[in-house]
Amino acid sequence: MTCCDLKCGFITGTVVGALVAVLGVILIPVGDMFIENTVLNETVLENGTLAFDTWTSVDTAIYRQFWLYNVQNPGEVLSEGAKPELVQKGPYTYKTRFIPKRNITFNDNFTVSFILPAGAIFEPSMSVGSEEDVFTSLDLAVAVWCYSLLDHKLANLLIQRADASLFQNRTVKELLWGYKDPMLGSMLGVFYPYNDTLDGPYTVFTGKDDISKVATIDRWQGETSLSYWNDPYCNKINGSDGSSFHPFLDKKEPLFFFSPDICRSISGIYERTVNLKGIDVYRYMLPPEALASPVQNPDNMCYCTDRVLTKNCTTAGLLDLTACRGTPVFISLPHFLYGSEDLHQGVVGMNPNVDEHSIFLDVEPITGFTLRFAKRLQLNMLYGPSDSIVLLNKIKDNTIFPILWVNETAVLDDETADMFKKELIARMDLLEGFQIGLIVVGLVLFLSCLIGSIVVCNKPEKQSLFGG
Q: Using an 8 Å Cβ cutoff, are 24 and 435 in contact?
């Protein structure tokens, strides 16, 4: 091969290498556009999309795990006004949300409506005992009457007539799902009624006209806002139901979701990225300020409905659901996590732990799908001193009494995780690898041929031994 041929070959290689590298660079925005269009098409809630198939599926099991508090010293509380000493026991686990959405109806304004049937199936293999385990807990009827009736003399008469006490012994099944109360003569239970009930109807945006609104709630029970809080801000139904959000999440933006369990909308903020079965997800946590006192977070002022109970709205970590539920029920995080000191001092046995008692969502940031969540809430009731109610004569202070706490949780199964990785992540990795491969091969070819060309051009021609 002559010098000219070699030089031409190197020049050709340099040009080809440059073109290959440029092609790799050009494919980056093209590939990103392809991925974005695919995700946008698949995250719209309409028949045939991945989002709709996931949204209507009940393959991912949702569980409610209950920890119930057992009173160790009921006699001392009544006779001496002692603080209740509580020991939790759990979990008692039930499979829920195993019934598909019903009455799915697509509307003309890019929304879809549906209702959520409720049901609970006990899972003995995931529980510490049976539904027949007995707990000593606050008498729910007494707590309701003592708080609701303005005339404590009448309440005392009704309590004495029913031969009721401040505490009662009930099975797990009775406390959770209901029993016939001798004082009221009707069914009573923390979650009564539950089985065969319906939540909704919900109306959410499909995202077909605006993907940023996909899964966002437009109406709940036919209304665009709540009516419990006498304030437009607190009554706002904001965000999705938490099962999914819009695609291409920004870590800096909070995620809003509405929960009928707490009768309000709430938000999670990005904490960190975690790996879930080979998938990188954003973990969003409920921040302490979500349940902070209005003194610390003025946005919560409209949730303060009882200034006496909340010590002039300075109590943190407690949400009064009386207006919403119709009974004196108070929601907090388990073990009064982020709650005021007076809540912890009212009972013995609270040991809050962020890892065990906080609320979080693990959301895949490209699709906006929630792949794991843990919604943890504690249900509390109130009792306090009364001169007219005999069984409360020795009680010294108002006490927010924990009945139980629940962890509603779900995580995608291995089969779904493998499908997710195959259909989305593997394709993205393959495309990214192809792009990088083109750039690397092109640059190596370009630089090698460029150097070769320079060497050949600068190499002196060999002289004949005899000259000429």
A: yes
Q: Which residue has the higher pLDDT, 436 or 193?
A: 193
In the chain, count of helices (H) and strands (E)?
11, 19
- State phi, psi for 436 to the nearest 5 degrees: -65, -40
308-313: Cβ within 8 A, 24+ apart: 309/382, 309/398, 311/342
Task: Please say if the pLDDT value at position 33 is more than 80.
Answer: no
Q: How confident is the model at residue 464 (pLDDT cuts 50, 70, 90)?
A: very low
Angle between helices 3-42 and 426-458 (to 10 degrees): 160
pLDDT at 342 over 80: yes
Start-to-end C-alpha separation, the chain: 22
Query: For residue 27, what are the contacts with CB-CB under 8 A and spacing of at least 6?
Result: 431, 434, 435, 438
Q: Is the pLDDT score of 176 beyond 70? A: yes
Angle (CA) 257 261 264, round 5° = 50
Alpha helices (H) along 239-332: 322-325
